[in-house]
Write a structure and sequence with these properties.
This is Serine hydrolase domain-containing protein. The protein is α+β, with helices and mostly antiparallel strands. It contains 18 helices and 11 strands.
Length: 487
């Protein structure tokens, strides 16, 4: 889950774009941007986010903007799944944005000499073993840079989701192997940060959530940030179903105590977190912070951060997070000292957080932002129309199946079977749907259950086309058999 969206989200968005066409954009508004050296005004942020909410139809969104040591503005917009207004203190899941928090926890232990950043994981973490001798060469730096060789293609990540603790997680990891030699290739894999979280437990002698509280959250004043759902439970997130936002319980796997995606926080606390990077007060010295931001030798991904170029020049250090009902993104500019966090309680085929992050960055630099498009609404409308059309064509195919059979009564059976192929193509596509998305996702593991969350409109439309094709094919087979048995 990095930069613009998760690999899964990117893959299904490709399919959505194919049917949605060009999305109408938000009408251009001239915002009151700061001049050289000036500061972005809260009123400008509110005006921009108000337009964004109107254009994107997001249910709820919260933002934090910082500059240096100062929190410029935190605010919430829209509502949660229970209808309550979203505020700067509404708890949100931030998914893989968690990784930068886990990296900071690890680096505090590096600071204290309790973790050797370039030492092997096997030498510092009892119980770490895999069915691959190369795993003995994986270092802590490899974990945080995601260059360990861990991959969804060689580790049963579905089985790992059943782990009830990080200790059990480690035992389930033993059957996995590496997809590449450590340090030679970047592969985004959540296992890296779950192993890092377990290493934090062993090195600190504290449960992961307790150490995170003591070493990261409390020093930054993040009183409403946690890894424990029993302590702070966000409302259910929402998925878009053909334009209607429906509440959904989040899928398990990146929730309580997860070092890869378990943090629950709010915009106000994210403002405090960002000032640790844009100003001061971080529990790490500058040299260790710079180590966190430095890319590896094989990819620009650092330790929970990635550089993202800006249209106006310069770059943001960013990390995104996408669950199945919540999305988030954070970024800060080393040049301007601005930091941004965008959190939303809705997940759909198009991600709203990334363009908002870029819009806020543009405003902070005195530029007018790109107008966010209503891509979700366009995609939902196109997919709904496609589903209705598929059902209609299926009904016509079934109704005309006897005529179709009579027209082919005297033809060879193989030729009749060949003419069935077009109507069965949607069936084949639907059967291979998760596998195809997995291939587009660079091997990230994809399940049928996952495809019923934010890709739900696409899944239902493909299902409707498949059902229509199958009904037509079956009706034609039955009619053909009857015609040939009673010429």
């Amino acid at each position: 889950m990095r930069k613009k969206t998760t690999a899964l989200a990117a893959a299904v968005a490709i399919a959505a774009a194919a049917v949605s066409g060009a999305a109408p954009a938000l009408a251009r508004t001239a915002y009151d941007v700061p001049g050289p050296g000036g500061e972005l005004a809260p009123e400008t942020i509110d005006a921009y986010l108000g337009d964004v909410m109107d254009a994107t139809g997001q249910p709820g969104m919260a933002v934090a903007v910082t500059r240096g040591d100062d929190i410029v503005h935190t605010a919430g917009y829209g509502h949660d799944s229970a209808g309550a207004p979203v505020t700067a203190e509404t708890p949100m899941r931030i998914a893989s944005v968690t990784k930068s928090f886990t990296a900071m926890a690890v680096m505090t232990l590096v600071r204290d000499g309790r973790i050797d950043l370039d030492g092997t994981v096997a030498g510092q973490l009892p119980g770490f073993a895999m069915d691959d001798p190369r795993s003995d060469e994986v270092t802590v730096r490899h974990l945080l840079n995601q260059t360990s060789g861990f991959s969804d293609t060689t580790i049963d990540v579905e089985a790992l989701r059943d782990a009830s603790s990080l200790t059990e997680y480690m035992s389930l990891l033993e059957a996995g192997s590496l997809a590449a030699d450590p340090g030679t290739d970047h592969r985004y894999c959540n296992v890296n940060f779950e192993v890092a979280a377990r290493l934090v437990e062993v090195a600190s002698g504290r449960p992961f959530d307790a150490y995170m509280r003591e070493a990261v959250f409390d020093p930054l004043g993040m009183a409403r940030t946690t890894l424990d759902e029993a302590e702070i439970a966000p409302a259910d997130g929402l998925n878009s179903l053909y334009g209607l936002w429906i509440p959904r319980a989040e899928m398990p796997g990146f929730r309580t105590f997860s070092g890869a995606g378990g943090v629950i926080t709010d915009a106000a606390d994210m403002g405090r977190w960002l000032t640790a990077h844009t100003g001061g007060g971080a529990p790490l010295d500058r040299d260790l912070l710079d180590t966190m931001y430095a890319p590896s030798d094989v990819d620009d991904y650092a330790m929970g951060w990635s550089p993202e170029p800006l249209a106006g020049g310069g770059e943001l250090m960013v990390h995104s997070g996408n669950l199945f009902t919540y999305s988030a993104i954070q970024g800060f500019s080393p040049e301007t000292g601005y930091g941004f966090a965008v959190l939303t309680n809705g997940a759909a085929l198009t991600d709203a957080t990334y363009p908002v992050l870029l819009g806020l960055a543009a405003l902070s630099e005195g530029r007018q932002p790109e107008a966010p498009g209503s891509g979700r609404a366009a995609a939902d409308a196109a997919l709904a129309a496609a589903a209705v059309a598929a059902i209609g064509l299926g009904a016509v195919g079934v109704a005309r199946s006897r005529r179709w059979a009579l027209q082919r009564a005297g033809r060879p059976a193989w030729l009749t079977a060949l003419r069935m192929v077009p109507v069965l193509l949607p069936v084949a596509l639907f059967a291979l749907y998760p596998t195809a998305v997995e291939a587009l996702s660079n091997g990230r593991e994809v399940t049928w259950e996952q495809m019923t969350y934010f890709p739900l409109p696409l899944t239902l439309t493909l299902g409707a086309a498949s059902a229509a094709g199958l009904a037509t094919a079956c009706s034609r087979v039955v009619r053909t058999a009857r015609v040939r048995s009673h010429p």
